[in-house]
Structure prediction request, 798 residues.
Amino acid sequence: MIKDIRKAAVIGSGVMGSAIAAHLANAGIECLLLDLVPARLTEEEAARGLGTDHPAFRNRLAVQAVERLKRTNPPPLYDEAFAARIRPGNLEDHLPQLAEADWIVEAVVENLEAKKALFARIEPFRKPDAVVSSNTSGISIDAMAADCGPEFRKHFLGTHFFNPPRYMKLLEIVPGADTDPDIVRSLKRFGENRLGKGVVLAKDTPNFIANRIGTYGLLVTLREMQEHGFTVEEVDAVTGPALGRPKSATFRTLDLVGLDTFAHVARNVYDRVTDEAEKAVFDVPELVRTMVERGWIGEKAGQGFYRKIKGATGSEIWSLDLASLEYRPQKKPASGALEAAKLAKGAREKTKALLGAGDRYSAFTWRLLKQVLVYSAEKLGEIADSIREIDDAMRWGFNWELGPFETWDAIGLVPSVQRMEAEGTAVPEWVKAWIAAGHTSFYRKRDGALFYASQGDYKRLEALPEAISLAALKEEGKTVRSNAGASLVDIGDGIACLEFHSPNNAIGADILTMIGQSLEEVRRNYDGLVIANQARNFCVGANLMILLMEAQDEEWDEIDGIIRLFQDTMYRLKRFEKPVVAAPHRMTLGGGVEACLPADRIVASAETYFGLVEVGVGLIPAGGGCKEMALRASKLADHPEADLLPYLAQAFETIGMAKVSSSAHDAFKLGLFRPGDRVVVNQDYLIHEAKKTALGLAQGGYEPVPEARIRVAGAEGKAALKLAAYGMKEGGHISDHDYLIAGKLAHVLSGGDVPAGSLVTERYLLDLEREAFLSLCGEPKTQARMQHMLAKGKALRN
Ligand code: NAD
Prediction:
């Protein structure tokens, strides 16, 4: 049993080792990072007069790896400062320090002998009870620890992180034959609770679960493509979002992973399986071999299945022509099946649409799915104990929206099996028996719970107690109120949750109305309110489309009305007599941020990208965002000698440059979160944690937030802020229009033309916000920015 993991050690500071160390640091764990002592001094080291006994030379690999973490994009660290939690060292001088580690993670080169040799060296230093795990992608856990003692083997297992470990949800835990089941259980909980991972238990078989099925799928796709004359871009059009899978589809994924790595991973299964048919699939196709020989291994080599071609007018991505092995401009595939999939909503409907159109793309999709579904069913029991594990692994490890068995249900289990059999495909016996017993799907819902096929019967899916599902609660009839844009859901223990569910969760009149109604409901019947949802993003802002239309029609009164409604609703939220907790996750922008700022507390997912980005569309925050930031600055400067201006300048910069946090931790640094706000690593637990916070506030004798008096920097402050913006404009860093916006922002944040140090009301600042916002709406360049954002999803710099 693991009591607690306070200190860890990671061995191997390459791509994975350094990023795993970073994620442990994210979780607040002190981490030793060890790598080899380099073979020789670099010229630079020699010129600096370093000897081979100098720590700068001996620790070089790990030291450089930690430095790299600070420059990597997307950032592996929640906060660059967390790099200080990683202590770099080397495998010759620092092995004794392993004795401090509660968990030692091995992430060295993928080679059995190298790993065995390493474990032999570690064994004498590990403290009793310390867990040791390997990040191997597919080497046998038992083989690696074969020469180690029983105590070591009892504490040894596989922990297979996916790249990049901070962002990929999947963690495969692979017990060996001798691993103590208590260790497996407690490490699983640790992975979920502290590292925020989705953990699946895999068996000690080649490439475990996700890479076994995933590699099989990729190989089958390659063969089908060649056999039936499809192009690279055609295959990607089918195997990406049209099937509920990532945009990188098949070949962008392969280029990213590297064809050499892919060949290596496939080879590992080829070498270790005995079934001839299976071996044949994992035998890497000639095409891939040739590409690896030529060094066309993908992104890291500058070319793979795609290549960036620089032309006179910019660069273009060309694709590999499989017949000539030359790159040529892409030909966008057009087909009824692809069109139907595009129009369909959700992965289930998309997959059905793709299959149902009856063209060659439909036939391709069918052949592909058929093989992957059957293979997944064949491997059940061998690679994992349940279909749930296989589905989870594919969703979390490959970012598929549906795992194989969920896909099978989506396309119709019974008819698809009939079709397979009619085509002579051997369907695994257990699937046939399942259907013969009268079942028509692998999953089913009953009384709000999800059940899945397990050993001939439906087994209830035991959700983690901390994982509140709004969808499940709504199915149980816990919706208290609802309109097109939002619902109020009873999440138990006297707390209600306001859920946005408009398109992209953009805030419009329906959401604002529902907030108002929710306050009435909570006032009467609940102890507190949580604002949270479980969509891809929390909220990408206010409904820009409506705003632009009103602005183009010069309906200023309408816009004034919308803004007033927004401001008033947020004001009521802030003054509400019961606690309000906002729980944002992922993209939370513009109006989404403004819906969080009035809450008593923010309880955010670690992966929250939080920012007042209105300037990007030529506006400033006017739903209370500027007022809240001015208030925060005034509170921070709330002691006699304090100077307000530096705090105000930070708010000015955060809003003026439309800064978005790279994590929840970063949002504290940007001044968007306050002390008392919290970060939750596992997003699945977010609503549970927000609810706990709301309950805590309610039980602690909650008192509503009184109307604040805000100290402002006035005309002087405004002049200083404008001067800074003027410097940016003269330096060519911002455009004339940016400068105009900055001037209005400076005006609002500093409280307009009042004397420095004046105390103003919240209402006063809201009026300034609204006036500035309205005047910007009339600017043609602002309207051009809004239009561009709506059309292209990107900010226009004009
Ligand atoms: P890498 O090549 O980036 O890093 C390997 C590190 O190991 C290097 O820093 C190297 O100096 C060190 N090393 C090499 N030989 C060693 C030895 N004999 N003893 C000690 N250290 C040695 O590799 P990586 O991509 O980080 O992979 C590390 C492990 O993680 C492998 O087992 C790999 O299969 C697995 N893995 C990789 C990925 C991925 O996407 N790269 C994903 C999951 C798992």
In short: The mean pLDDT is 96.
